[in-house]
Amino acid sequence: MKSFTGFLVVLGSFVMVATAGNFYQDFDLTWGDKRAKIFNGGQLLSLSLDRVSGSGFKSRREYLFGRIDMQLKLVAGNSAGTVTAYYLSSQGPTHDEIDFEFLGNTTGDPYIVHTNVFTQGKGNREQQFYLWFDPTKNFHTYSILWDSRQIVFLVDNTPIRVFANAERKGVPFPKNQPMRIHSSLWNADDWATRGGLVKTDWSKAPFTAYYRNFNVQGSTSSRYMNGAWKSQQLDAYSRRRLRWVQKNFMIYNYCTDLKRFPQGLPAECR
């Protein structure tokens, strides 16, 4: 059994935490009855979906800035109509949220990675991507790097999206509300696959996704993270990888959707 490792540093009135996580210790299974399960001494978690219900979990701790890594192996085979969501979120009508959503597809067709950022309850900042591998064959690492200047979405340490702080343009940025880590597997066949044209094939249920190797370096203090994460800028190689992903695998970008925004693109896109 892999042992829980972690350290906690208390500095003044705030806490910085770095953990190589244990699902028993770090998360609560929040819904789905026995469809959410923890195995291997807390090192492996699964979520399942059947015709009756999906399932989900959330972190016990809240974070304000940090880097969150999770390895996922997505639903294999015909996953059309299903969504596996992995995201950070605060609570309330003006909540902040940072989303990875994996939209299932028919066997042989690629998953779509749907990303979004909500600030003060407002989202509509979608970018979507195909992946350059089959995310159902093996575990892959999906990461969110979040500081006061930017949010970076990464897949196997390759950046796929950067959402920069554009407060100088009047765009709110999530920097004041601590967020919990959430994940869920649910049926969304009214929209998830080809706009809802392809429905969930319940004869293939249960649908199951797997999680392991959760790791977080985070804080409940913006004061600490502003100092600790100054070095977390994309280097030249990472910027080249970002351009490679966006050129070859991006399939939707709200910042180029003129039909959706006939009165003008959002301020952060200009």
Largest sheet: 9 strands, antiparallel
The radius of gyration is 18 Å
Helical proportion, percent range: under 10%
Category by helix and strand content: mainly beta
Please state the overall shape, judged from the principal axes of the Cα atoms: globular
What sequence of helices (H) and strands (E) makes up the elements? EEHEEEEEEEEEEEEEEHHE
**What is the count of β-strands?**
17
Strand content: 35-45%
Give the terminus-to-terminus CA distance: 51 Å
Task: Summarize model confidence as the mean pLDDT.
Answer: 90
> Number of helical runs?
3
Task: State the oligomer.
Answer: single chain
- Contiguous low-pLDDT stretches (5 residues minimum) are 1-15, 226-230
Report on the architecture of this protein.
By secondary structure, this protein is mainly β. Helices cover 9% and strands 41% of the residues. The chain contains three helices and 17 strands. The chain has helices at 23-26, 222-228, 236-248, and strands at 5-11, 14-20, 27-31, 36-39, 44-49, 55-59, 66-73, 82-89, 97-103, 112-118, 127-129, 140-146, 150-155, 158-164, 180-187, 207-219, 250-253. The strands form two sheets. Strands 1, 2, 4, 5, 7, 12, 13, 14 and 16 form a nine-stranded antiparallel β-sheet that branches. An eight-stranded antiparallel β-sheet has the order 3-6-15-8-9-10-11-17. A hairpin with a 7-residue loop joins strand 8 (82-89) and strand 9. The longest helix is centred in the last third of the chain and has 13 residues, at 236-248. 32% of the residues are buried. The model is unreliable at 1-15 and 226-230 (pLDDT under 50).
